[in-house]
Amino acid sequence: SRLMHNLFLYLLIIFTMNVSSTIIDDLDKTRANWSAISDNVMGGISEVNFYEMDDGTDKFYRLEGNVSTKNNGGFIQSIINFPVNAEDYQGIRFTVRGTSDDYYMWIRTPASRFPWDRYIAMFQPKEDWSIIEIPFSSFEKSNFYMRKRMNISKIRTIAFAAYGKDFQAQLDIAKIELY
C-alpha cells in the first residue's frame, strides 16, 4: 500500500540519518591539517614527536614523547585544525592503540578564549587497535567561566593529548570521524 511505502521511505531516511558519519582523517582520501605542540610553549620541558607511520598492514599517526610536569608543564598534543559545524553529529569516533595511560581529547570552540581553555574528555587506549566513541555531551569545560555545554556548531580544533603526569606517551591514531 501507499502508506506502507511512505512509512518505509520515512524509516529509511531516519535510519540513514542516524548512521551517517563524516570522516575527519582516514590517512587515505581524507586528510586533516595536523600540528603538534608541547608545554615548551609555556616553559615546560616535555618532548613531542608526531609523525605518520606505515607498518605494512596499517597506516597511522603516532603521537609520542616524554611528558614531564617539571617547570609547570605536563602535556604533549597533536592538533587537528578542523573548523566545523558538528550539530548533526553525536560525537567523535576514532581508532586508536597505545600505552595503558589516560589520554585526552581536547576540543576548542570560540568559548576557548585563552590557550588553556578547552572541552575535555578522557579515554584509555588498549594495546591493540580499538574504536572509541566520545559523545559531545560527555566533554567537560576546563574553566568555570566557559559555557557549560560545548557549542558543537563552532568546533575549531580537536586535539589528542597526553597530559598531567610524568610518563612516556605513545598513542597511535588511525581513523577519526564524526558520528
Q: What best-fitting shape do the alpha-carbon axes yield?
A: globular
Q: Enumerate the spans where pLDDT stays under 50 for 5 or more consecutive residues.
A: none
**Mean of pLDDT:** 92
Protein structure class: mainly beta
The sequence of SSEs as H and E is HEEEEEEEEEEEE
Topology overview:
Blueprint: H1 2-19, E1 22-25, E2 33-38, E3 49-54, E4 59-67, E5 75-84, E6 91-98, E7 103-108, E8 119-123, E9 130-135, E10 140-141, E11 155-163, E12 167-178
Antiparallel strand pairs: 1-12, 2-5, 3-4, 4-12, 5-11, 6-9, 6-12, 7-8, 7-11, 8-10
Describe, in plain words, how this protein is organized in 3D.
This protein has 179 residues and is mainly beta. Helices cover 10% and strands 46% of the residues. It contains 1 helix and 12 strands; from the N terminus they run αββββββββββββ. Strands 1, 3, 4, 6, 9 and 12 form a 6-stranded antiparallel β-sheet that branches. Strands 2-5-11-7-8-10 form a 6-stranded antiparallel β-sheet, with no helix packed on it. Strand 3 and strand 4 (59-67) form a beta hairpin. The longest helix has 18 residues, at 2-19. The mean pLDDT is 92.
